[in-house]
């Protein structure tokens, strides 16, 4: 089939218009935007595949974990039990501070795992990022195991909130000895943390990067 001169000219003009568009700033902007979105999606997918948690990063909102975590720190979170530490509690994959001290297992400057959990399992509340101190069984009197430094002036289990334990779970605490000198369960931040309430374990922190998320929120 022989192309006529008019058809050739129309085709040439069409190709020229396409070439001009592909070289235009609008096309370059669209390409850069789509490329950036694709990269973000790929990174997010990789993080999810690695961590098993969505979203796999959290921003630290308070100083309750100082000096080991600062406000605005971006923390990568791993699904608990994905890569369990030594001497983890049952099948939870979480090492408590009490067990970590015996095993020499440390994370974020202290013994045991730092966990992210939903207070009392309530998903409408802001997740808490604190250290898992020890495990209690349902109905356990854990006064003697608590030690004297994090229970205030209580002289017995009856003087402690959540003692005896209303159910099995982790006793947790922030590392900040000034603002979080007592266990979360005594401050009634949460009852003993059930494994089902745990979002994951904190693995790596990046200082200041979380300020962007906090500013957005």
Descriptive overview:
The radius of gyration is 26 Å and the shape is globular. The protein contains five helices and eight strands, in the order ααββαββββαββα. It is of the alpha+beta class and about 220 residues long. It has helices at about 5-20, 25-50, 95-105, 145, 210-215, and strands spanning about 55-60, 75-80, 105, 110, 115, 130-135, 170-175, 200-205. Helix content is about 30%, strand content about 20%. It has two domains: about 5-50, no CATH class; about 55-215, no CATH class. The N and C termini lie far apart (about 65 Å). GO terms for molecular function: serine-type endopeptidase activity.
Order of helices and strands: HHEEHEEEEHEEH
The gross shape turns out to be globular
The number of helical runs is: 5
How many beta-strand runs?
8
- Looking at the chains present, what oligomeric state does this protein adopt? single chain
Radius of gyration: 26 Å
Helix vs. strand class: alpha+beta
- Average the pLDDT over all residues and give the rounded result: 79
| Strand order within the widest beta sheet | 1-2-8-5-6-7
Largest sheet: 6 strands, antiparallel
Extract low-pLDDT stretches. Answer: 5-12, 35-54
Helix percentage: 25-40%
> Strand share of the residues?
15-25%
The figure for the number of domains is 2
Q: Give the CA-CA distance, first to last residue.
A: 64 Å
């Amino acid at each position: 089939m022989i192309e006529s001169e008019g058809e050739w000219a129309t085709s040439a003009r069409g190709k020229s218009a396409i070439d001009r568009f592909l070289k235009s700033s609008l096309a370059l902007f669209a390409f850069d935007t789509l490329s950036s979105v694709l990269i973000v999606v790929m990174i997010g997918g990789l993080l999810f595949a690695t961590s098993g948690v969505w979203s796999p990063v959290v921003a630290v909102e308070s100083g309750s974990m100082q000096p080991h975590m600062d406000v605005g720190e971006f923390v990568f979170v791993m699904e608990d039990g994905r890569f369990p530490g030594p001497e983890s509690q049952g099948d939870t994959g979480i090492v408590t501070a009490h067990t970590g001290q015996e095993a020499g297992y440390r994370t974020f400057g202290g013994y045991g795992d730092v966990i992210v959990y939903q207070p009392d399992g309530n998903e409408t509340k802001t997740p808490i990022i604190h250290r898992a101190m020890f495990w209690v069984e349902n109905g356990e009197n854990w006064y003697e195991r608590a030690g004297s430094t994090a229970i205030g002036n209580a002289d017995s289990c009856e003087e402690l909130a959540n003692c005896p334990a209303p159910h099995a779970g982790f006793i947790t605490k922030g590392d900040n000895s000034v603002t979080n000198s007592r266990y979360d369960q005594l401050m009634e931040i949460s009852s003993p943390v059930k494994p089902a309430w745990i979002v994951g374990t904190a693995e790596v922190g990046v200082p200041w990067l979380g300020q962007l998320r906090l500013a957005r929120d």
